[in-house]
Inverse folding.
């Protein structure tokens, strides 16, 4: 069983809302990536999203753009990230790891080679920001290697399109909370609740909500809106920038995630 | 071997073989589908087509002539060099063909806010121009480095009522301006129309921008038959994103006897690594919403390009050119900064025409090609823009102070 499916089954069984932190791999430093992942788990992460840095992150706001630029400048690429994921896996066999990024680095690495190496390193899923379902046949080697391809649902996704997305959904669906780039602050929880309900009618696949979740209050509101999990990205990436060592990374992660974790655990759950 | 009938491409999802497509975030898929549907309806609407053609005639000044560069041809001593004079269009380049088409489409879709990216500023000026005429709000994204390099065009856009936003992310040039325009579009998608300036981006842009510029080749083909009684032996155009080139090439794709050559920016030379020759020296990848040839490193990171011509300084290229390269219908060669400058001077002195530095790459390749051909051969070069905007760059390069 894919670790993503196992983890969502656990969360549902326990009636908990999942916490998915996103960090840009290689920022603040490639050497701190494994300690960063370990600290995320210690702070209550249920799944981990690692951003694969790209020179032209069209869907990202300034915080993740700049983290990505710094990581690119450090030469961080897929091979290095997979090496660190494999190192993380030696001590953690359970926490799902999802790579999130853009297509070009994989196109250049090669799809078959990427799928094989990522699965071998212990990656569980891949979210390709610029790969809508229409173009997803390119990514067929992922499924053949046992990796889940995670798809986005956006505020602009029409009911007709939603059927096409849910038909291909694996692992979970990533609901983009507003039309915009990562890190902006335009949450409308009433609207999100409606979207979650619409997706639920179409599929059983779990729903994680991302974009604009920055603190305990926004995370709790998303949880209350019915999400199975919330993604915290820019707020965390911003706080990690410039951290000097593993201790500082762990302290900043705890400072950012602990209140969110508590809020999620206290949020009222719809028993359905 | 794929079908070589490129005239029928792209397919319904914007693919030119394995190139093109819509590689964008989910948020943009519905807006792109709406755009494709609106464009499909518009191009089949005789009223829309008539208005577009009327604007091309009375506002742009079309048709642009084909001019026989006789003195240049004699000096070169080979084939006859003919110039398609897109430099004589209003705003001084082919870019206006596309911005008029897209702005009319924006108005038809009820979008009042226009955004655009620009490198050298030519597409920004052409966009600001049509927005002024149609009374649309206009925001132009421009890399901070280019804002510095192209101060006159920045001011020109402001005179036309546009807001110019300097982009400080990444390499602060054209590719980053395009990223930022996409981010604006995804944020204001309900009321905003994004006018992309070249045959790149996600479907339907490569097709739509090609169609609006294809007037160049349609005119040229008819003008050749009328004025010379036959088609040219070769076409030459410069290729950055590739909109003027595809505009000229498209009407000739089915004419198997017409050789088609694109001139890319080889900068300091391909071997130097300082160039923008995506087709000649790049590899297939995905950038700005389409699969095409890109210049990137082994980690897939897009690399900074170099050309003396800001309009060719782009690490990707329109996907239809990628297709034409792989199918063998067109060939793409590199022209260095030095060669383009030499061609600029040659044309200025022998014909009294200051060509844009972009177009000077095509002139240089046209001269090379003419040398190899007999004197009764005809080489048609797209003179895609005028060079007034480049006189400061050329002066600075040659150590001349104008102040």
């Amino acid at each position: 069983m894919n670790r993503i499916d196992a983890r969502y089954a656990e969360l549902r069984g326990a009636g908990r809302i999942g916490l998915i932190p996103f960090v840009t791999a290689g920022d603040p430093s490639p050497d701190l990536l494994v300690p960063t992942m370990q600290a995320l788990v210690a702070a209550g992460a249920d799944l981990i999203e690692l951003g694969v840095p790209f020179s032209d992150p069209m869907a990202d706001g300034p915080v993740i753009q700049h983290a990505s630029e710094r990581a690119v400048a450090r030469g961080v690429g897929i091979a290095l990230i997979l090496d660190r994921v494999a190192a993380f896996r030696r001590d953690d066999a359970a926490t799902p790891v999802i790579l999130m990024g853009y297509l070009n680095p994989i196109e250049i690495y090669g799809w078959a080679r990427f799928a094989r190496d990522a699965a071998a390193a212990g990656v569980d899923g891949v979210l390709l920001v610029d790969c809508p379902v229409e173009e997803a046949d390119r990514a067929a080697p992922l499924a053949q290697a046992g990796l889940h391809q995670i798809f986005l649902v956006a505020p602009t996704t029409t009911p007709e399109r939603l059927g096409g997305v849910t038909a291909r959904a694996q692992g979970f669906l990533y609901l983009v909370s507003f039309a915009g780039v990562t890190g902006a602050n335009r949450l409308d929880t009433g609207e999100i609740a409606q979207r979650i309900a619409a997706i639920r009618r179409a599929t059983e696949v779990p729903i994680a909500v991302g974009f604009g979740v920055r603190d305990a209050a926004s995370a709790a509101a998303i949880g209350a809106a019915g999400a199975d999990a919330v993604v915290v990205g820019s707020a965390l990436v911003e706080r990690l920038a410039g951290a000097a060592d593993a201790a500082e990374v762990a302290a900043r992660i705890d400072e950012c995630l602990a209140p969110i974790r508590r809020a999620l655990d206290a949020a009222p759950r719809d028993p359905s | 071997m794929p079908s070589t009938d490129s005239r029928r491409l792209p397919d319904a999802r914007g693919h030119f073989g394995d190139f093109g497509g819509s590689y964008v975030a989910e948020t943009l898929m519905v807006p792109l589908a709406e755009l494709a549907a609106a464009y499909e309806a518009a191009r089949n609407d005789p009223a829309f087509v008539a208005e577009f053609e009327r604007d091309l005639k009375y506002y742009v000044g079309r048709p642009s002539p084909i001019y026989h560069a006789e003195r240049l041809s004699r000096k070169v001593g080979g084939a006859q060099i003919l110039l398609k004079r897109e430099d004589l269009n209003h705003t001084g380049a082919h870019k206006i063909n596309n911005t008029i088409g897209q702005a009319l489409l924006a108005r038809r879709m009820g979008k009042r806010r226009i955004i655009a990216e620009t490198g050298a500023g030519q597409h920004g000026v052409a966009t600001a121009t049509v927005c002024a005429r149609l009374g649309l709000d206009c925001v132009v994204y421009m890399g901070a480095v280019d804002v510095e390099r192209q101060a006159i065009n920045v001011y020109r856009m402001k005179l036309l009522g546009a807001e110019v936003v300097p982009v400080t992310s990444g390499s602060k040039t054209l590719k980053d301006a395009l990223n930022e325009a996409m981010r604006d579009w995804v944020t204001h998608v309900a009321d905003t129309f994004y006018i992309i300036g070249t045959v790149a981006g996600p479907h339907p842009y490569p097709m739509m921008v090609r169609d609006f510029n294809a007037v160049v080749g349609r005119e040229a083909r008819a003008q050749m038959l009328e004025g010379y009684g036959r088609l040219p032996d070769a076409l030459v155009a410069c290729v950055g994103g590739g909109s003027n080139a595809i505009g000229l090439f498209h009407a000739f794709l089915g004419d198997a006897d017409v050789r088609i050559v694109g001139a890319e920016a080889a900068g300091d030379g391909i071997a130097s690594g300082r160039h923008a020759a995506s087709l000649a020296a790049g590899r297939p990848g995905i950038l700005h919403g389409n699969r095409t040839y890109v210049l990137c490193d082994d980690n897939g990171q897009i690399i900074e390009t170099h050309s003396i011509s800001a309009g060719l300084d782009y690490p990707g290229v329109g996907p239809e050119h990628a297709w034409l390269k792989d199918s063998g219908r067109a060939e793409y060669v590199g022209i260095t900064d030095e060669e383009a400058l030499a061609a600029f001077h040659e044309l200025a002195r022998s014909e009294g025409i200051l060509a844009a530095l972009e177009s000077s790459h095509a002139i240089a390749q046209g001269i090379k090609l003419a040398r190899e051909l007999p004197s009764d051969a005809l080489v048609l070069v797209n003179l895609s823009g005028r060079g007034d905007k480049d006189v400061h760059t050329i002066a600075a390069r040659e150590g001349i102070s104008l102040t």
In short: The longest helix of chain A spans residues 246-266. The CA atoms of residues 85 and 139 of chain A lie 21 Å apart.
